[in-house]
Amino acid sequence: MAQADTHNSILDSSRRRFLAITAAASAASVMALASAAMPVQQACTMEAGMEQALARIEYIVKTLREGYVTEGFRLDEDAAARVVAYFRQPSGLDFDPEQRFALDWVRDHGQSLDWIMSGDPGGMIARGAARQHEIDR
Question: Which residues contact 60 (CB under 8 A, 6 or more apart)?
Answer without folding.
Answer: 109, 111, 116
